[in-house]
Amino acid sequence: MRPLINKSEKDLVCSLRQGDVKAFDELYYRYLPRLLGFAYNYLTDETEAEETVQVIFIRIWEVRKTLDEHRNFKSYLFQSVKNQLLNKLRNQKKNCTIEEIPEKYCVSTEDVFEKLTYKELEDSTTALIKNLPKTQQKVFVLSKIDGLSHEEIASQLSLSKRTVEHHIYLATKFLKGELTHKASLYYGPLILIFFNL
Fold first, then answer.
1. Which tens digit of pLDDT belongs to each residue from 101-115?
2. Which domain does 132 fall in, by range?
3. What is the DSSP-derived secondary structure letter of residue 90?
4. What is the pLDDT of residues 77-96, one digit of tens each?
5. CB neighbour list of residue 179: distance below 8 Å, 6 or more residues apart
6. Of 102, 121, 136, 93, which Cα lies nearest the Cα of 195?
7. What are phi and psi of 107, to 5 degrees?
8. How far is CA 188 from CA 86, 89, 118, 170, in A?
9. What CATH number is associated with residue 174?
């Protein structure tokens, strides 16, 4: 068993700033599987995915003294991997011509960027949904994620159909407002797609 498995992320980052190798190891093993999965999802090559994640952890060790323990370390990691993936894609684009790549292996950089952006939007939305009032949260999840009709939700939660509609309206308005406020121009169409509007 890892010695620091029960330590909070904030405590581990504080220790890492002081050069604590055990804290670094714990953060590494805590997030490695999800980061590898994230990278592999876009590169579809295990070695490249591992290489991308290793580069990020090497950088984190190098800049450990400047890390902010009040910042969400997990989000910082995923954002760093995302940036590394985009840099890798840009470099690959510079280093080869389209004629050198068999057509069946061609993947549009825009497609990958859109996938990464959509994933980021999805993660932001999931976090925001958790901030909704409990009933509103339940209604929104049942409607937009589980695909239940307003009548089915009303019956399941013992609410009127009108109350269900009102909860969905308020939740959607809140989420769209928050995401649009945070979003780049590129997010605009994705937000509409994400909420089926």
1. 444 444 454 555 555
2. 108-197
3. H
4. 888 888 888 887 777 655 54
5. 121, 124, 125, 128, 187, 191
6. 121
7. -125, 130
8. 20, 24, 11, 19
9. 1.10.10.10
